[in-house]
Write a structure and sequence with these properties.
single chain; 163 residues; alpha/beta; Rossmann fold; seven-stranded parallel sheet; 7 strands; 37% helix
């Protein structure tokens, strides 16, 4: 069973919420477990979409308890790790779909990229080198269906081992 993280801002636009909900639903319909940060915004929208489709949603919470967690989580895991839980989310994922952008989302994108986890972006961050050229790694999707297709295709490929 593939595990795909859906990452994005806790406060998002209606368009980002709709995209995240679609991504969660499409992942669940294809049998993937959805991993997320477990709170509001993109995380809650992805969880709602996955639950509506009968999927499993695991929320890796930053706090020590379940306070504020999305009601659509199948499993809520309080970690007490704060933002460090972002590393746990992306390391547990076979692929990461980033919807929109915030500083926390950027950390998840960077941690996934450094750890060899495939990253699919849907809006949000565009990472450039010093000359203004896009860095290799994250793959931009045109919409939720393409993001899910790319994530599941990438999740099926072997990843290099890293410490």
């Amino acid at each position: 069973m593939r595990q795909v993280a859906v990452c994005g801002p806790g406060e998002c636009t209606p368009q980002e919420a709709e995209a995240a909900r679609d991504v969660g639903r499409l992942l669940a319909e294809r049998g993937a477990v959805v991993l997320c940060g477990g709170y509001g915004g993109v995380m809650a929208a992805a969880a709602a979409g996955a639950r509506e489709a009968g999927g499993v949603v695991v929320g890796v919470l930053s706090g020590r308890d379940r306070a504020g967690a999305s009601p659509d989580l199948t499993v809520a895991l309080p970690t007490g790790l704060g933002e460090a839980r972002n590393a746990l989310i992306v390391r547990a994922a076979d692929a990461v779909v980033v919807v929109g952008g915030s500083w926390g989302t950027l950390s998840e994108l960077a941690l996934a990229q450094r750890g060899g986890t495939p990253v699919i972006t849907l809006g949000g961050w565009r990472i450039l080198d010093a000359e203004g050229r896009p860095l290799t790694g994250p793959v931009a999707a045109a919409g939720p269906a393409e993001a899910v297709w790319l994530a599941l295709a990438a999740a099926g490929r072997a990843r290099p081992l890293s410490p």
